[in-house]
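ok here's Iron complex transport system ATP-binding protein, seq below lol
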Amino acid sequence: MSRPDAERPPDLTASNLTIAYGNEIIVDDLALSIPGQAFTALIGPNGSGKSTILRALAGLLNVGNGAVMLDGQSIARLGVKDLARRIGMLAQGPVPPEGLTVLDLVKQGRYPHRSLFGRWRREDDDACEEALHLTNMEELRNRALESLSGGQRQRAWIAMALAQETPILLLDEPTTFLDLAHQIEVMELIADLVDRRGKTIVAVLHDLNQAARYADYMVMLKAGSILAKGDPNEVMTASMIERVFGVVGNIVPDPVTGTPLCIPLAPRRDRARNRTGNMLRSDNSGGHLT
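and the structure came out like this:
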């Protein structure tokens, strides 16, 4: 299904962005433009700055240098509620108060649209119902969150973010700790929100093959810098995987989708050690070192 007609997609960019914790620079002079109405995956090894960049895009961090711009305006100049009506953020492993139902959680997504003493409106009900429908959580609305499976809980959190009705949604490791079936469930939901609802979604992911299969745009990071960005076919190369992750691998077409599929072989150091061992064995058996 084609994407729905909508207003011009939001323009979210980071320019010359530098973020440090104390004396340690986490993100260094980063420039990034997020494609509108598309799914962008941030990938890279632990400590590469993925979650830090996501938090900066959400306006949750003070940046040292540079700026994050939304439709040409620095997000640092936007009020908290104004920003929350435009960018939704779902952190990794959120923990709700005990005893909360799915519907209670989803209703919390409406806070940017309500005044301090404002009454609950029909628009709030409609937004919550739409969020429950999109995430297939309608029949679970009255269930306590702690009684749900991991995949169901993650969908409940995404429903809360959808009730916020933002054109941009940022997700930090949305499939972490989920089994394979629930990972696929969440990834299919993300793809559907982009394709059918025209959302702009940015997610931190660890599974390279999931990222390549579902994302429209990939950003590969190492040590706070972007090493590659673009279409998955351009980013997922054997040389780039070895450079970023230190892993030797083959890149082949996914037999189902045709997207790049990484088959890891060995870390670089293991390859070197194996090569040395093979040469020594050859020498001990009368061969010659090369």
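fwiw Residues 1-5, 285-290 have pLDDT under 50 and may be disordered. kinda neat tbh
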